[in-house]
Amino acid sequence: MNLTLKIWRQKDSKAKGQMVDYKVTDISEHMSFLEMMDVLNEQLVNSGEEPVAFDHDCREGICGMCSMYINGEAHGPDRGVTTCQLHMRMFNDGDTITIEPFRAAAFPVIKDLVVDRMAFERIQQAGGYISVNTSGNTQDANSIPISKHAADEAMDAATCIGCGACVASCKNSSAMLFVGAKVSQYALLPQGQVEAADRVQNMVAQMDLEGFGNCTNTGACEVECPKGISLENIARMNREYLSATLKG
Amino acid sequence: MALDSKVPKGPIKDKWTDYKNHIDLVNPANKRHIDVIVVGTGLAGGSAAATLAELGYNVKAFAYQDSPRRAHSIAAQGGINAAKNYQGDGDSTYRLFYDTVKGGDYRSREANVYRLAEVSANIIDQCVAQGVPFARDYGGLLDNRSFGGVLVSRTFYAKGQTGQQLLLGAYSAMNRQIARGKIEMFNRHEMLDVVIVDGKARGIIARNLITGEIERHSAHAVVVGSGGYGNVYFLSTNAMGSNATAAWKIHKKGAYFANPCYTQIHPTCIPRSGDYQSKLTLMSESLRNDGRIWVPKNMEDVMAIREGRKKPTELSEDERDYYLERRYPAFGNLVPRDVASRAAKERCDAGYGVNATGEAVYLDFASAFERYGKEQAKIHNIENPSPAKIKELGQAIVEAKYGNLFQMYEKIIDQNPYETPMMIYPAVHYTMGGVWVDYNLMTTIPGCYCIGEANFSDHGANRLGASALMQGLADGYFVLPYTIGDYLSADIRTGKIPTDSKEFDEAEKEVTERIDFFMNNKGTKSVDYFHKKLGKIMWDKVGMSRNAEGLTEAMAEIKAIRAEFWKDIYIPGTANEMNPELEKAGRVADFLELGELFAKDALMREESCGGHFREESAELDGPQKGEAKRNDEDFAFVAAWEYKGEPGDAVLHKEELEFKDIELKQRSYK
After folding, report:
1. What pLDDT, in 10s, does the model give residues B19-57?
2. A14, A179, B208, B496: least CB-packed within 10 angstroms?
3. How many CB atoms lie within 10 A of CB A4?
């Protein structure tokens, strides 16, 4: 198929960006979206132009590095996939595709489609862990049985890949799905209980500090999340936060 | 220099304990004055960085991605082995040790493997304490599954995302130390050289991938945990950015590179579909627990399927060739990876491949649907269930176990694997070879360590499934933090290592000159052009089976591509900005050297062992006819190569392998 691409180009974090049109031809429907971008970039390099910078790494939907806003949706029109797993069969010959970086005040553009997600790192550093040393002297793994239900729910929350699609999709640029997922994972496990109150308060405080917006229950984040992280995690975080603040 | 593996004396089961009891330690107050650089933040690097920081060292960690959480360990699906014997099926440290040495085709160092098996149980305890949500049974205890090449269930897992969960565990431990200021994290940075002062590794030169700035970082020791070199094939299951640069740079500065020819071609990957393909996707080996692998028995059916006249589901049982079950009745679909891959290649080379390219076999879950369905019907007291009901119940169980893998398959291939068998074909996945290290995980450069997939130490010529995660975390959490202390105890009075020395000047100059060359070369070809060319030679001549003629040609051809690369490479943009083409150029330049050494090593090893299959060395008759033929008399050694300027001129050093606790035997899975 032949396509017109409208792509956000921005030299660096300080430069003023703009949309630029490109044409690609003979795109196979079996290509992934990023392979289509590879074709474009090869074309640009061969004609002496600078290729479009975009984040990507594992190309199997798990590292969370890729991050494009395609035709107004984070990771494009398909559901339950990241951009690297989006296939060109989702598009038609002659389509015009708009490709922008994830947009949020807390995710400044570094170059073209690459954004800075260090805010997520700082939120995790504020409390996204269980304070146990990696000493090897912990108790036997089976000494605390955990109900399968709780373990499965914790796992569902823990599958978040930290891509930032939730923030990019939210009209308020809220990071509550991301933070809620981490808070939930630990809140659901006995190991995470000890410091649960501190964790949720510290992570939420950092989230606010980074300039993410609040949640107004629109639910776009859940729809666009490539891993299907549920809104329930936001509700759980709110309950955890409330009970932590009430406890003082 | 003679190779000294520094394996402690004494019986194998006491070596590690005795060793730990007798090494020099650094007291907590002194650790504050010692800096350690960790390059790479996957399971090995991440766990090492966190643990070293907890112990009190000042850690500087480097990742080329924007977060440690994105390292490619995250993509490991199936699980992690540990000799817990929770299933009561006769597992033990010895059995895990034995399986790993045998699985590695008797080409690994016994003492290292025993230690790995010994600390494996601790890893699970540690991860559970960190909040890793492993799969559990209804009683609340940890669940296990089986992997290839073993007869027990010792694999712990978190759905099909075990690597992700373990990495996030290590990442959380890192975050705790980053918050405390004990780890200084350098995201989007790439190590471009190691700095050696008075014969010791004392720092690195790194490039800030956002600004292009070249930076100097000093430390008392340098730990490289940068993963494997599978991307030398261009197409592999590795991440796009996975590279050998850190490992190759230390090799060029004096670290020997061991067994580069040992590569794992993983049997269950999604077949390639076209020239535009940028990477291959793995389907977890865990699928072989429940999937049966087959091709049609008759050539007419093969043709009918390829031309779309017949569906695989229309073939009756006796029209199918379950070739693994036929050839290896004892292990069936759970033979080790190298055996399963070669068997698939054998059938496809004979013309039985089931897709248009002729390079695909079926992985079929129909019997699992039936088996689980009947079991569920019984559990739920459903009398005389219809076949459709049985299938539905069975599919629900399979979905719970492998749902994410099935979904991934459907997204890529656009076929529903619940309705039609999956198509799979082997792909490059893991490299057992790597930087040579002694028992302490130190390379031949004093103070320079290498851990995880980047080193060569534990998997011999073939790695068993679910052992990579085990090794990465064992090295990082439990081995390196001890062994490095023994070395650093001599550095408590050294003080901070200055970065304004002539050694740093020279290393930085070398790095800058190479970048300048790339930016100023007025060539005409992109980096990928060369990378794809290299990959094709590697796959065709240094791939699943190799012979002397092909390997000799490969060496010459790679050398020629390298010459062309340095003449005709073109890099757009500038060096002082984010420039992905420039990053790739440096990595491919290193692959172009590594590839030649790889072929040289494969040429030297005139035996078949593990992932290295030499066509000249196969069993000619008897029950093992056609199977790989190992030659213990002449090749029971580690091949450690010393850099001498050109990869073709590398000098071989042999570390003879002694097997005192395991008898060397033909590796039979029949």
Report:
1. 999 999 999 999 999 999 999 999 999 999 999 999 999
2. A14
3. 13
Q: Is the pTM of this model over 0.90?
A: yes
| Per-residue pLDDT at A135 exceeds 80 | no
DSSP letter for A95, please. -
* A3-111 belongs to CATH 3.50.50.60: no
**From start to end of A75-187, where are the E strands?**
96-101, 109-111, 114-115
Interface of B with A in 50-109 (CB under 8 A): 50-51, 54, 65-67, 69-72, 74-75, 84, 86
pLDDT in tens, B604-623: 999 999 999 999 999 999 88
Confidence of residue B653 (pLDDT cuts 50, 70, 90): very high
Is the pLDDT score of A33 beyond 70? yes
**Could A61 and B273 be called an inter-chain contact, meaning their C-beta atoms sit closer than 8 Å?**
no
Q: Is the predicted pLDDT of residue B645 greater than 70, yes or no?
A: yes
- Establish whether B337 is a catalytic residue: yes
Closest Cα in chain B, distance from residue A171 (Å) = 25
Please write the tens of the pLDDT for every residue from B557-567: 999 999 999 99
Which phi and psi angles does B50 have, rounded to 5°? -65, -45
Domain boundaries, chain B: 270-427, 512-634
Rounded to 5, what percent of chain A is helix, strand, coil? Answer: 40, 15, 50
Q: Which CATH class is domain B512-634?
A: mainly alpha
**Kind of pairing between the strands at A3-9 and A18-24:** antiparallel
Query: Positive or negative, the Cα torsion across A142, A146, A147, A150?
Result: negative
pLDDT of residue B65: 98
- Cα separations in angstroms, A101 against A68, A104, A110, B222, B431: 5, 9, 10, 36, 35
Q: Phi then psi for B66, rounded to 5 degrees?
A: -85, 0
DSSP string, B199-214: TEEEEEEEEETTT--E
Residue B131 corresponds to which tokens in the numbers above? Answer: 């909040």
| Superfamily grouping for domain A117-135+142-247 | Alpha-helical ferredoxin (1.10.1060.10)
CB nearest B408 (choices: A61, A110, A191): A61
Q: Which amino acid is at B136?
A: R
User: Mean pLDDT, to the nearest integer, of B460-482?
Assistant: 96
Question: Which residue from B231, B108, B228 is spatially nearest to B609, judged by alpha carbons?
Answer: B108
- Closest C-alpha among B4, B115, B106 to residue B471: B115
Distances in whole angstroms, Cα of residue B1 to Cα of each of A42, B643, B655: 45, 12, 12
Three-state SS for B615-644 is: CCCECCCCCCCCCECCCHHHHCEEEEEECC
Q: What are the residue boundaries of the structural domains of chain A, listed by start?
A: 3-111, 117-135+142-247
A248: confidence class by pLDDT, cuts 50, 70, 90 = low
Q: Which of B69, B202, B337, B562 is catalytic?
A: B337
Residues 337..366 of B with a Cβ closer than 8 Å to A: which? none
Q: How many CB atoms lie within 10 A of CB A96?
A: 11
Cβ partners under 8 Å of residue B465, min gap 6: B78, B79, B147, B148, B149, B155, B285, B286, B336, B337
Q: Which residues in chain A touch residue B415, judged by CB atoms under 8 angstroms apart? A: none
Q: What is the 3-state secondary structure (H, E, C) of B540-568?
A: HHCCCCECHHHHHHHHHHHHHHHHHHHHH
How many C-beta atoms surround the C-beta of residue B377 within 10 A?
Answer: 18
> Cβ–Cβ of A154/B131 closer than 8 Å?
yes
